[in-house]
Amino acid sequence: MLNIFLFELKYRIKRPATWAYFAIYFLFAFMIMVTDSISINGGTGNMFRNAPAMVESYIAIFMAFGMLVISAVMGNPVFRDYEHNTHHFLFSYPFGKWEYLLGRFLGSMVICWVIFLSLPLGISLGATISPVFGWMPAERFCSNPFSVYLIPYLIYVIPNTLFVGAIFFGITSLTKKITYTYLFNVMLFMGYLLALNKLVEPENMQVASILDPFGIAASQGEARYWTPTEINSQIVGLAGLVKWNRVLWTMIGLVIFAVSGYFFDFRVKNKQNKVLKNEADTPTKTHISLPKVSLHFEGFTQIQQMLSYGWISFRDTVRELPFIGMVVSGLAFVVFQAGEMDEIFGTPTYPVSYNILEITKGLFGIFMLIIITYYSGELVWKERALKMNQIYDALPIKNWLLFGSKVLSIFLIVLSINILIMFTAILIQVVKGGAPVNWELYLIDTFYLSLKENMLLAILAIFIQTLVPNKFTGHAVMLLYYVWGMVSGNIGLEHPLFRPFAIPGYQYSDMNGFGASLYKINIFIACWGMLGLIFLILGNALWVRGTVSSWKERLQVFRKRMNISTLVLLGVCLISFATLSGFIYYNTNVLNKFVTDDMQEKLGVKYEKTYQKYKKMPQPKFTRIKLDMDLNQKALSYHATGEVVIQNKTPKTIDSIVIEYNALLSKIDIQGWGNVVLDDKDLGFRIYKLAKPLQPGDSVAMKYDILMENKGFSRNGQPQAITYNGTFIHSYDYFPMIGYTGNSEISDKNKRTKLGLPKKKELPNPESKEGLDICYLGSDADWIMLESTIHTEKDQIALAPGYLEKEWEEGGRKHFKYKMDAPIKNFYAVLSAKYEVKKEKYNNINLEVYYHKGHEYNVDRMLLGMKDAIQYAGTNFTPYQYRQARIIEFPRYETFAQSFPNTIPYSEGIGFIADLRDSTDIDYIYYVTAHEIAHQWWGHQITPSSQKGGDMLCESMAQYTSLMIMKHKYGADKMRKFLHFELDRYLRGRRTEQDYESPLYKCSNQQYIHYRKGSVVFYALQDYWGEENLNAALKKFTVANQYRSNPYTNSIAFLDTLKRYTPDSLQYLYKDMFETITLYDNRATSAKSEKMPDGKYKVTIEVEANKVLADSLGKESPLQMNDYVDIGVLGAGKKYEEKQLFLQKYKLKNGKNTFEVIVAEEPKKAGIDVYNKLIDRDSDDNVVAVE
Amino acid sequence: MNLSIRNLNKQYPNGVKALNNVSLEISSGMFGLVGPNGAGKSSLMRTIATLQEADGGEITFNNINVLTEHDAIRRTLGYLPQEFGVYPRVNAVMLLDHFAQLKGISNGKERKETVEALLHKTNLWEHKGKNLGTFSGGMKQRFGIAQALLGNPSLIIVDEPTAGLDPGERNRFHNLLSEISENVVVILSTHIIEDVQSLCNLMAIINKGTILAYGKPQDLVKGYEGKIWKKHIDKKDLEIYRAHKVVSQHLVGGKMEIVVCADTQPDAGFSQGYTTLEDVYFAVINQ
């Protein structure tokens, strides 16, 4: 055995492939350490590039892709003997089956281990020399002990090699076919993807951790709440489920090896075991004479011949077992995943066609790539592999027929798979039911967009296979092409023309259909189609017919085949291709500005360095805006004029006005502001010198005139603000703003360091006076009077904040005039589409939902949400300030809802198509609606200052309000699932923090804090203090602070009000929840119950309580605990729906606490903080089963 | 029917001269091309079958220039390569029909008749529905000849068709070949001398790219009559006879027999036996 082992080692060491694999993996590992262009597993801001946990995850993730190498190395040794027919001798040599197998197996496994040494080596070398050469600053690296490399190597490299290796070794040993190895590669990868997908839901973590054959899900699940500090200082190692995952899959590997070894036949077998017997000596029937036939070679016959040839090789391919396996497992994967498609808060959406199609295609995408790449190679080399090429080559058929038939076969394959995908998608849609099948979308996508895209790729693959000396080289070149597609953008080659055969994507919307995207796609398809034709012409001329042995000969043949008509055709294609790519360039770079990421960064630097000085310059504020907006949906353009009044609210004379405007505007004129003294068209930054300086307190009327035009297409997708049906123009995005806003500053910490910018200036702290005079929503206005007239298409309804004053038709267009009768924030939007409207009146308030026809599903829920929210906030805080509230649907290009004064644009993608037929799912439509309505108070009545913590007053309070409304409608029980999601997202959010974590009262643009932590904290606050008490304090606050401007209120003023009314015993909550980052580590250790004579149960619960203080990077220190925490006992019921038997707050000290409680029914579970009201780092260990 | 090869030359990039000034005149009937492995048989066959370019020389078949008019020659050609495969998951009828289509039999009815006739003729009719992947070597070879006969070719090239077939299969194959060779040119390359003897009316012996002998088999044998001497010897004595022109040595019933080509009797132990074509073959290639 040792001999075989050593032979295998020696053989492999000498193979260039071994070292090629080593080099590729080394290079990838190395590159991660030296460039930000490659990023894996979200290594971000505060994490060291080589942070221990990151090194661990790199090794784990690379090992999943290492599967390809393992399959090549481990699948090969036995197969090699069959391929070269050496098994005839080997099997007769004096060693046993197990010696042979073990020797080969261990030999190639050791080679794998050597290959994967490249990972720790590459990472450590990269981390060492990257700062030396100045590729990345030294502060982004830490020095790691040896174990950081060794332990992941032992945990991931060794078992994966064993397990994956055993599978491939087994498969090739038993089937002697390498194709099955490829198939298994795909299936394993699918298992991994399935597991990762499951991991998204906190519920499924354990299943996923075990299911993932590579252990990545287990490891990532274990580290999902890790803070940057933890990531920078430790590895997961074998903690938690990782250990069991590794043990399980190692065992599976051993079993597979043993089983396949047992069945391995160490004898030479006839290859075909079902060969037909020769018939007995029947004489040949010599008397048969062949019929005379007429031969045709021209015209239609050639078409017939191509069809015949294309069909027969297509047929032979699709009847191959691995092909069927690949397609079937791909479709099975899709169907399996279909069950959990597109959920938000665990609630599914209606199976609308675009969603189903996108998800189906997305899931099948990787299979498609593999099939196209692999079978292009198979088809091109099929006849040569079968030794049929000489027969074909001597047939009286045209050269182009040989090549053309290959293209036809792959076309048939691509076509049939696309049709299969289409019907799978339709089947899923129909089975799920509830949404109509959009045939237009399915047919256009299947028979045009996807087909063309796949076919272009197939042509490329066929062309490459025609050039290369064997199919493996062809696959490698295709792999390079895919890698190129992924990295070219990152290395500065961002123009789409640098990515041949890539077709721009599209986002289908029920409202706007394909929108303007088809035009761009058509141009690209035409352009790459021409390149495809060029490749076809060249491929045909280079196609090997007969035994051509050298490139010299091939080129001779090539020259012969390039006759005049071919050359003319080639010329036409070249000219068309050049013209079309020129046209694309004209669109992206001439008609539109092509701004590369690099240029964008430079602009950001310039913006900050040149213009930040104007931030301090006194500027006037808008007080009145009269907007006239002419939408031209057909041309995707609009023209707007604004008659505005500005006022100098500063104590100084203002002689210059700074404005920022959208650099995409084709025109922006402002009359009455004096001379332009500075205009930066790239950044949209302009300074006017006023003819007559504006004295303190003075106002002046002016008029701006802007034109937004859509010119051709840009590098980005289609225009999404103005569309054919579903316009949503945000005041921030397209109307001029006064003053330096800071919006174009670069925020990424590491990018700033790279560009030599100082640390970004943060918002002022709420403790300071700075920023108190500036509105949370922007410095260019406090309160404004808004009036707007909008001109739109005849069949559309246009909307803007305000009450409809007039609506008329003129010149084949519709016109709407809206006016606000009270001041609002300078925060408005213009919308227009073909709407259905549902109206309801509540307390003299007009509630309206404007929705796309067909999206009626949840309109009533929205109306109910509006009504309940207005009722709750109106009763508990202050009255609703408007006479109307409107929800308006807009296309799914963005998925959010946003609250403008009495006007709430609500994306088609989040709620309108939510499927709440299952009543146990979270009703997030109701929740989102209530949240947005709550903003009419928290944002539009209470507007905080432009300081840290403003988000808490707007977003956390909107969360609180909607949580209360939900609680009253669905009951406290139903809130548990929702809060669990919120807690999970907060804890995960900490991991990806780019700068540092703030306490809630100082949060600044950190969604995981202001939404997620805000929800949990305010829910707990009302639970501890009582909802009525909290609301009473809130009412005091809202009454005192509504509509105030300079000075604005802030989070400190808010908390001060609350604290004033809070009992002393609960004052500690403010410190823990708002002012610091405090986390609990509570867990139940045991629970025993005893049935008492009276039929009741005595439950003894043992819990452990602990509390820690975390700093802004997640470094923890222990805290003394003297806090109230729930102790509870739960009865029967499925998760989140258990019956509550006992729940009471006890004051707990650190460490072990024991309780005895009596309950009336049989207890099932018991523990501490059973409903996860507190921020607890591991919320799953709070409850234990009762013994 | 006349195939004429003149001064054909071919050198491979690795320097091997595969064809060296080859000239042959072949008329209808079966023509045998014999030579050891690597003699240039397949190179010559492939060149005639338009699968390989020649460096120089010319080939004409019934006024068609084989080297330039590829399309024209392919229309009259039937080719059975030395080693060939089939689509494993396609049945005999389907593949034969497909080849018939590619051979230019575009009329569906004619194609069907031809395919059926050929399957009967090659005795594959009863297996017509079976996937070709399950065929035995002989059946596959017969399928090969069936496809070569599609479209009434007047030039048929069969490259080592009987290698690996058992004697029964070989016989059947020979019958098939001899039947079809009546009015067409059939070129059969082989290294089994017996085949040539039994089948061909004209033959050539080729080695190292050069035609060493050309003529009717019986004429070639006649040319060597009286020059072939045979003797049974002890194995260990082989060295002693090196001085003579030993063209072949083989074992007959365990004893070694050597064959020497000489105008006079080399020594008394040699006798002039019956001269076979095989003796001639060895004499020619070992000259």
| Strand numbers in spatial order across the main sheet of chain B | 6-7-8-3-9-10
What structural category do the secondary elements of chain B indicate? alpha/beta
The proportion of residues in beta strands of chain B is 25-35%
Within the largest sheet of chain A, what's the order of strands? Answer: 4-7-2-1-10-13-12
Number of helices of chain A: 33
Question: What is the CATH-assigned architecture of the largest domain in chain B?
Answer: 3-Layer(aba) Sandwich
Question: What gross morphology of chain A would you assign?
Answer: globular
Residue share in helices of chain B? 25-40%
Quick one: how many beta strands of chain A? 28
What is the string of helix and strand elements of chain B?
EEEHEEHEHHHEHEHEEHEEEH
Question: For the residues shown, what is the average pLDDT of chain B?
Answer: 87
Quote the average pLDDT of chain A: 88
The structural domain count of chain B equals: 2
Q: Biggest interface: chains and residue counts?
A: A-B, 59 and 65 residues
- Rough outline of chain B: globular
Main β-sheet description of chain B: 6 strands, mixed
Oligomer: heterodimer
**Secondary-structure content class of chain A:** alpha+beta
